[in-house]
Amino acid sequence: MANSRVTSLLPLLLLLAGCPVYGSGPVQREAQVSCQSDFDCPSDTFCDSGTNSCIAYDFGICLTDGDCPVGSYCELSDGGCYIPAVAECRADGDCTSGFECDFRDSCRPEIDGDCLTDGDCASDSLCIENVCTAVTDTCQFDFQCAAGFTCTNNRCQLLCGPDTTCPTGTACEGSLCQPIVGECIDSSECPDLTTNCVEGTCLRRCDEGCDAAIEVCDPQGFCRARTSPDPQAPTPFCRTDADCDGTLCVEGLCRTECDIAAPEPDLICASYDGQVPLCGPDNLCYAESEMSSDCRVQSDCPNQEDCIDGKCR
Description:
Elements: H1 2-16, E1 45-48, E2 53-56, E3 73-75, E4 80-82, E5 99-101, E6 107-109, E7 125-128, E8 131-134, E9 149-152, E10 155-158, E11 170-173, E12 176-179, E13 195-198, E14 201-204, E15 215-217, E16 223-225, E17 248-250, E18 253-255, H2 265-272, E19 278-279, E20 285-286, H3 288-291, E21 307-308, E22 311-312
Antiparallel strand pairs: 1-2, 3-4, 5-6, 7-8, 9-10, 11-12, 13-14, 15-16, 17-18, 19-20, 21-22
């Protein structure tokens, strides 16, 4: 029994005496590090080259542009994601990688789209914000929009003033509710819990309620500004006379006939529709804006002016 106890204590006695327990020399162990590259770390951490240790990502921290939302870049000096300043362009090639030239001749983050000009679209569509849009979903004149809206670059936009509540994702600028660009990078930067950061803009979720008069619910479930023509407004677009309910189809638009030789020809038009009250020289009724129109789309205007209610401004 005593011999057994001594035998069990022998390794401890040898260790205290400075002798190796196994073999003829001390055991060699290499210094271990946590990581040498990001691949050595869990997916929610990165390898700190200074300490060779895996560090958890903090909110807003980035190491490369790939750590940031599309369209933003990583500022290495503070590890934050930022949206670059808008640059002027004429074609996609004028913009940096990851950006494209939009219809305003400005570089913006690449998004899903299929056109730069109307020529890229079918004959019954227009290129609106880089997306081929059916002509029937666009406007040219104010009378095609709901009350309180004006037709700007083929989209109905809400007119606004100091007391106007603009649709989610827009703000009052130049008397129009204009889209807000670069408002946020993360939803924590949005004003309340009912909104989310979507493509750099804070948008209210549809389940929180959209204002049907000025907003629509998009397929992703977010409220966006209403821009389509008023469904209750006269629909002027047509292919044949049969589409026009008793009026004539002229160059894709339904027109009411009048008689310019009549004593008061404009009354004929006004009696049919007060929004198109003028009898033109071709014996067809027109809106006042149409009689003085100088643009159909923004590209008709010089010096990057907007096409508002059929006029370049």
